[in-house]
Amino acid sequence: MACFGFRRHGVQPDRSSRTSPCTALFSLLFIPVFSKGMHVAQPAVVLASSRGVASFVCEYGSSGNAAEVRVTVLRQAGSQMTEVCATTYTVEDDLAFLDDSTCTGTSSGNKVNLTIQGLRAMDTGLYICKVELMYPPPYYVGMGNGTQIYVIAKEKKSSYYRGLCENAPNRARM
Question: What residues in the chain have per-residue pLDDT under 50?
């Protein structure tokens, strides 16, 4: 009962140990008021094209009608998450990743079609779609389970055919 200010007689209070748990418990009471969870779905696996372009749909479910939405693409490497691109858009306007040539996208209802460009083999990894419904309140946030994007390294042209052409005059004499 130390959290509520009750104290036993003759016992010296240890303020450092009692403040932290009480503050943590108190703050947990208000988290659901300020943000609500939301389901975000995205495909498990996508194969990038030979030009390094990968597209996938990020679909979110909410009970409210959002006027302003923020979409963020995160890349997870181990325990680190890095932002690849992000945009905030109003539902009436087109989705646009300003000042970012890496990502493009379109939105329709509760679906966002995302395209990541310029991918190389070393960019293979888990890409997570994060959606935030900004306005009107309440604030909703959700993250997908991630899309594993595989980027195949471009093959070097085989020297086999070049060798055949270079040796063609020699083969003709045989």
Answer: 6, 22-33
Own/partner contacts of 36-40, CB < 8 Å, gap of 24 or more, are: 36/138, 36/139, 36/140, 36/141, 37/140, 37/141, 37/142, 38/62, 38/131, 38/133, 38/140, 38/141, 38/142, 39/142, 40/129, 40/130, 40/131, 40/142, 40/143, 40/144
Please tell me the predicted confidence (pLDDT) of residue 106: 92
Residue 140's pLDDT is 93
Give the SS3 label for residue 2. Answer: helix
- For residue 6, what pLDDT is reported? 47
Model pTM score: 0.69
Instruction: Select from 32, 83, 57, 69 the least CA-distant residue to 144.
Output: 57
The domain locations on the chain are 2-6+13-32, 38-150
- The pLDDT, as a whole number, for residue 32 is 44
Instruction: Output DSSP code: residue 6.
Output: -
Residue 93 pLDDT:
79
**pLDDT at residue 166, as a whole number:** 58
DSSP one-letter string for 7-59: --TT----HHHHHHHHHHHHHHTTHHHHEEE-EEE--SEEEPPTTS-EEEEEE
38-150 has which fold? Answer: Immunoglobulin-like (2.60.40)
